[in-house]
Design goal:
single chain, 9-stranded mixed beta sheet, 304 residues, 9 strands, Cytosolic phospholipase A2 catalytic domain
Length: 304
């Protein structure tokens, strides 16, 4: 345990990114953060990051990390996207806005939580969703936790939108893939960012509709995090944990979860052992990115 992290300006916010199947990587990060003695004063998350963040906000670091470590190996593709093609077609025809029902992921991710209310959580927590009619981000910090988590994880076209107080909401990643600004809105004085996305060149194309939709959203939204992180760091100290490269993993790949957690833990632990304490106007670490191409321009020249 390092005493230097106790000098981070308080309140310290843990910021959980979106990331679908890569949400397991945040568990390894949390294990390393807990060992290093870092504790959140508030938490904010988007999409799968909202699920992980809610567990920590409920149980605290020690029990929350244990819970997530136990639950994530049971989160499988089949559990989240149930049924065969006929069942999926039947759901789409009856629902018209999605291929799958949305309760399975929530049931798996937060079934151990003893409360459904934000106000009963041990640590202040915010979940990000996107309002369908206005395209604006919404920060939920009060009321029905379960409904907010359903909304935050409602990938458009994959899961149905969620109605809350007369408005429809979908996945929070659409407006805040890495919700650093929301953490500042909640009063954070420093940020610890658990970003499990990447902007790496893919090695294989998406294989099916669900993966194509999530890939398209991911590709568009990752760029905001790459631009936003340095700007946020000008306002307050940011500790931005490294994430293992997921270039060989699909966004909906839930295989080898224990190995991915362990890889993430080892990477985060090594980073925290040697990373300096971020000061005001400083970011330590940053979003993961690499490419196999050396591109001097923003766009590739394409031929028909």
């Amino acid at each position: 345990m390092s005493d230097r992290w106790q000098s981070l300006p308080k309140p310290v916010a843990f910021v959980f990114s979106a990331g679908a199947g890569s949400g397991a990587v945040q568990v390894g990060m949390l294990q390393a953060l807990h060992e290093a003695g870092l504790q959140p004063d508030l938490i904010v998350g988007a999409s799968v990051g909202a699920l992980n963040g809610a567990v920590i906000a409920c149980w605290g670091m020690a029990d929350g990390v244990r819970s997530l470590t136990a639950v994530w190996p049971y989160i499988t593709r089949e559990a989240i996207f149930p049924g065969g093609k006929i069942d999926q077609a039947r759901h789409f025809l009856s629902n018209r806005t999605s291929i799958f029902p949305n309760h399975n992921l929530i049931d798996l991710g937060v079934r151990t939580l003893p409360t459904r209310q934000f106000e009963a959580l041990s640590i202040p927590f915010g979940a990000i969703a996107t309002e369908v009619m206005t395209y604006h981000g919404a920060l939920f910090t009060k009321g029905d936790l379960y409904q907010a988590l359903l909304a935050s994880t409602a990938i458009p076209g994959i899961f149905p939108p969620v109605e809350i107080r007369g408005k429809l909401y979908v996945d929070g990643a659409l407006t805040a893939y890495v919700p650093m600004s929301a953490a500042i809105q909640m009063g954070a004085a420093s940020l610890v960012v658990l970003d499990v996305g990447d902007a790496c060149q893919r090695t294989a194309p998406p294989r099916h509709v669900a993966e194509m939709v999530t890939w398209a959203l991911h590709a568009a939204l990752r760029q905001r995090a790459l631009v936003e992180a340095p700007a946020i760091a000008e306002q307050l100290p940011v500790l931005y944990l490294p994430s293992p490269c997921s270039v060989s993993k699909g966004l909906l790949d839930f295989s080898n979860i224990p190995a991915r957690i362990q890889e993430s833990y080892e990477l985060a632990k090594a980073f925290l052992d040697y990373a300096p304490l971020p000061k005001a106007g400083m970011i330590v670490g940053g979003p993961h990115h690499h490419t196999n191409l050396d591109l001097p321009t923003l766009f590739d020249m394409a031929t028909a």
